[in-house]
């Protein structure tokens, strides 16, 4: 069974963190993963940096630019991750834009993911229908879970379709925005969380975008299986480095 | 329909809509409505009326006698430079602003490089009384000050794109991010035949008025609708798409696409996408783009801001790959020389983008009887500073 599915079966709310691979320094990737697992994080999204991250706000853009300057590439990331399963057991997901994967070769990319022990992918600009028609069989051949996004604007019909082809969780984007542009949730978002909850989807939902502190984390996990923090974490390591990430994690969990 | 778009939004293997889910509702709304709206007689009537009375169409098809004599062939210039705001860009913004109104949008966003599309968008927003926000790279804002001032006079808000290389590609990213953040009330007026389906097709259709006019104008002058060659510069590809449109399926009409070689193909300072690019995804479209081996989009360079884009539209990727169009690249120097030549021979100062197309006559030999139509996509007013510096005028 895929590590993501196993994790989703655990009877607890999940805390997931996104970070950009190769940021702040090229070799921070592996120590960060290890430290975050030790700190009690349930799942990680490793951002493969892209020159033109359309769905990301300024924080993740800046970290991507820096990571690319540091020399991060698909090849380098796989090299860094080659022994990761000797020390880390939480689910690992690569989040990246489609063009670098296309250039690497989609099948070769999937094979590499499987080889190093990556469990799933999030590719914001690979549309659900293109995935379904062209790439699904490749992902499944390598046991990878592809995670799809929904937003407050996604129609009920489309949510049902996305649910039907999801093999892991649904990434519920908290508001109509790029990453990092929210702080805390208002009535409108809570109503949206409730609306999705009442749809009784087969796939659990994990909420991301705009979660930055204990309050927003608690609001999100009250309404979903888990929550993902990205920009707030990037800001934290920008200011405090990668050593004390346990402090960040406990502040989110305990307030 | 071998060269035009298919029912799935692809030109051959190029096109599609590779967009984040956050954009899906906006793009899908447009996809479901654009053909229906464009087919409405009232829409067509309003579009045509504005093109005539406001833009000044039809633009003349001018026989360039002295230029023809020099190159010993028959050259017609399609005078898009005479349009209101000085380029072909306004054909598209008129169409899209009417589309936006039909879709009930009250906030307009756009990207711009040189500022031509930004000005054309700000113009139609003023005309319709809609809010207008234009994203422009910080570097382009500095080098295109007059167009920034024009946009401001027209009531637009110009927001500097501070990410990445701070030029056109980044302005496009910022416009797309804005659209993600404002999914309900906003329409994004893309300035070329780029972006996710249905944009390339919609923009090409709005620009197709150019080849439609060429057909009847040429009939009047030459007794036949179709020329032997159509020549156009390609940034994203909208003036070329408009000039080619009605000739796409007639293979007797040879198509020439002119790209900016910048300082030279091998210098690392170039924007010749067909030579330097590879298949991939940029701004939601599968097409040819300049990128690193690792799939990171690279920085193009051209003296002409309008050609300074690391991709081409999917129609052009298909025309290139299928061999339907011949692609020629022209350096900064060759273009500047051709711009000066047109000024001296015909009394027309062209936009530097269009000068690239004009430079083809030095590169390629045509027959005396050949009938050539060249898309003179814009006038050179905006480029005066660059001409002055280059020629030390
Ligand atoms: C006068 C002129 N010609 C050509 C272009 C290139 O765009 P496209 O290839 O979409 O026609 C521009 C873009 O700004 C322009 O201003």
TrEMBL record, chain A:
GO terms for cellular component: cytosol. The active site is at residues 45, 56. SUPFAM superfamilies: Ribulose-phoshate binding barrel (SSF51366). Its EC number is 4.2.1.20. NCBIfam families: trpA. PANTHER family: TRYPTOPHAN SYNTHASE ALPHA CHAIN, CHLOROPLASTIC, TRYPTOPHAN SYNTHASE, ALPHA CHAIN. This is Tryptophan synthase alpha chain. The lineage of its organism: Bacteria, Pseudomonadati, Bacteroidota, Flavobacteriia, Flavobacteriales.
TrEMBL record, chain B:
The beta subunit is responsible for the synthesis of L-tryptophan from indole and L-serine. GO terms for cellular component: cytoplasm. CDD domains: Trp-synth_B. It holds the Pfam family PALP. Keywords: Amino-acid biosynthesis, Aromatic amino acid biosynthesis, Lyase, Pyridoxal phosphate, Tryptophan biosynthesis. One of its GO terms (molecular function) is tryptophan synthase activity. Its EC number is 4.2.1.20. This is Tryptophan synthase beta chain. HAMAP family: Trp_synth_beta. Gene3D superfamilies: 3.40.50.1100. Transmembrane segments: none annotated. Pathway: Amino-acid biosynthesis; L-tryptophan biosynthesis; L-tryptophan from chorismate: step 5/5. Belongs to the TrpB family. PROSITE patterns: TRP_SYNTHASE_BETA. It is an enzyme of class 4 (lyase). It comes from the Bacteria. It catalyses: (1S,2R)-1-C-(indol-3-yl)glycerol 3-phosphate + L-serine = D-glyceraldehyde 3-phosphate + L-tryptophan + H2O. Residues 56-377 form the Tryptophan synthase beta chain-like PALP domain. The modification N6-(pyridoxal phosphate)lysine is found at residue 89. Tetramer of two alpha and two beta chains. Its cofactor is pyridoxal 5'-phosphate.
